[in-house]
Amino acid sequence: MSKITTELLLERAVPRSTRLRKIETLNLSKLQLKTGDLDPRLFSRLRHLQKLDLSDNLLDKFPNSLTLPDLRVLNCNNNKLEDVTALKQFPLLEELTYENNVYLTLNDDYKVIFLLQNLRLLNGKDITKLANHVRRVNSRKLTSKVTAHWKKFFHDQLPEKYTAEQVKSIKKKFLKSVQTNVVYGPSSLSEFTRWRVKMIAEEFLANSLGLELNSDTEPEEKTDENEEESTESPREAAEDVAQVGDFSSYISNVTVTPSKRKRNHSKSSPGNKRSKTQANTEEEAAEDVSAEPLHFLQCHSKGNSREDFKTQLWSCVFEPVLDSGARKDPIVSSSRTVATCGGESVCLIDCETGTVLKKYKVATEEFFSVAWTTLTMVISDSRKKAHNILAAAGRRGIVKLIHVAADFCYGEIKAHKKPIATVCFSPTQETHLFTASYDKRIALWDIGIPDCDYNFKASQLLVLETASIPLRIALVPTCPEQYLLAGCEDGCFAWNIKLDKGQKSRPFEAIFQFPGEENMTTSHRVDGLAFLNDDVVVSKSSKPGCIYLWSWSKSFDAKGKGCQRTMSAVILAELEWSTTDMSYLTLSTCPAKEYVFCGDEKGSVWMYNLSSYTTAWGSPKGKRSERRISPTQILQWPELRVNGEQPPEILVNNVVADPAFTYLVVLTSVNITAIWKKF
């Protein structure tokens, strides 16, 4: 039996009423109401209801026919709503709040803004300007893209005289194709974009081909991106995690004069001369690269101070794409959203617009590293959805687990008693997280999968003992469940991490030695480490001006027995880099484009296109490149003036490209995040 009766409605009216049709304000909060309790037949008698409070209940959706023709204000805070599209039945709605519905995301905000043309306030904020963009600008852009997609790929597929079966077939293909390929706006809004694209495409087909809307409509395919919603109810968790707010992220009063971009070569010497073929290859590659600075952001300031040019920025990682359709399309294979960390905060930035989408703060922390994973979580009704989870760690030795779509830090792991230098997730085991610490240990954790109430259990699976502080870690691509590499303060080490071995605490299995100045092998600090492809390792050492490329398979003897063996790294090439002796300016790779990136002590980014070398290196008789490989291009730091003055000495601590090499994110020692775009 429903909890809602005529007597209850009359009693909860404000003020109390004797007739349902006279009720204008109704408070149904804190009644443990579920969707089935909202009886459309009973609610249809509330014809003059203008304000309805349904907060603090258990609603997961709205019935489609409540028939409240005069409803202007609706409060749905603290429920379990999963969808907002049924709210379109209240066209006169002006004020809507649904905060703390953990399954609703930014995509749902945009949906209700589009569906409710009279909406002025959403969750207490004036949306007038945003609504104009969503309802007009966004719709105009998407309509143009949908129309162009039809003309380019489908217009000629339909014969002049077509059967109903042909129409049904091409409609199905078109709707699937257009939702996969039409992209607009930030990746965080991809679900809304697909929703609008489908709507626009159906309207287009109806108008141009005379097809009825939703006739013979196939059920919308579930893609991973559909799952880009959230799951945490902010009960008492992480008071140190801030939700999205207004940030002073752009540096104020900035003058930017990009330096002339050209290929830079270090001092040449007879030993550095390249063959004509190599030079031509590099020149051709250089012509393909054209990048311009898009944004300079100051979003990690302590206390949001615009005068903070001291906070160091350390790590950035692009968010994985959840949409399985997008994954298959190389044009949209990577996200525009990047997570950055430094000082007391972690930020999520849209690289195209420069918008700080979310910001998390821990006042007593200094974050050194961030990493993404995608967990398939069980939500209500035993349904499963994929969500991106961000791990952030730093000076306190604690890993914060953040459910980004829900703006919520749902837990933490007290991983080490000393600072954590870097973290990374396994590419094959989504719950497996490696943490490398100043306590000279690398730990492997199973972070578990949180349930619908965000209960989770983390467990330590393995501890790898290091001889010195681990600075960078990388899993071997061909066997990520068996071997891990680490660049440490006194060398590069490898461990067997296979979990079927009984030993939980393990010493390193191998240490790699590199050429010294006098052709002798020696160990040294390795502060940059990444794989260029399945076999080629790129490592940077404290030796000035030197970045090594070496072969994992030719260097590591998997058949050898015993631990702590010394192996000589089989060098494939050396990259020419800055002669600075400054440490901890790390490197990164873009395997899909075969690029290596490394910043220097002057704010510049050294870029190496190695696509013309990798085939030869991969052959059985692959030989070492005798000459150092010069950078394809050096992006010089622009003449950047803040309040008329240049910032202090700029070190590039880290530089990372998205998988498609569309954006390049540069993290500096002066609290400036620079975003470049490749054209």
TrEMBL record:
Annotated Acidic residues bias: 215-231, 281-290
GO-annotated molecular function: chromatin binding
Record field: compositional bias (Polar residues): 267-280
Keywords: Centromere, Chromatin regulator, Chromosome, Cytoplasm, Cytoskeleton, DNA replication, Kinetochore, Leucine-rich repeat, Nucleus, Repeat, Telomere, WD repeat
Segments of this protein annotated with the region Disordered: 211-239, 258-290
SUPFAM superfamilies noted in UniProt: L domain-like (SSF52058), WD40 repeat-like (SSF50978)
GO cellular component terms, semicolon-separated: centrosome; chromosome, telomeric region; kinetochore; nuclear origin of replication recognition complex
Signal peptide: none
Sequence ranges of the WD repeats: 413-447
GO BP term (any one): DNA replication
PROSITE patterns membership: LRR, WD_REPEATS_1, WD_REPEATS_2, WD_REPEATS_REGION
Gene3D superfamilies reported in the protein's UniProt record: Ribonuclease Inhibitor, YVTN repeat-like/Quinoprotein amine dehydrogenase
The Leucine-rich repeat and WD repeat-containing protein 1 WD domain, residue ranges: 290-678
UniProt-annotated location(s): Chromosome, Centromere, Kinetochore; Chromosome, Telomere; Cytoplasm, Cytoskeleton, Microtubule organizing center, Centrosome; Nucleus
InterPro entries: Leu-rich_rpt, LRR_dom_sf, LRR_LRWD1_dom, LRWD1, WD40/YVTN_repeat-like_dom_sf, WD40_repeat_CS, WD40_repeat_dom_sf, WD40_rpt
Entry keyword Cytoplasm: yes
This protein's record includes keyword Cytoplasm: yes
Domain Leucine-rich repeat and WD repeat-containing protein 1 LRR: start-end pairs: 7-200
Family under the similarity heading: Belongs to the LRWD1 family.
Protein name: Leucine-rich repeat and WD repeat-containing protein 1
Organism, scientific name: Prunella fulvescens
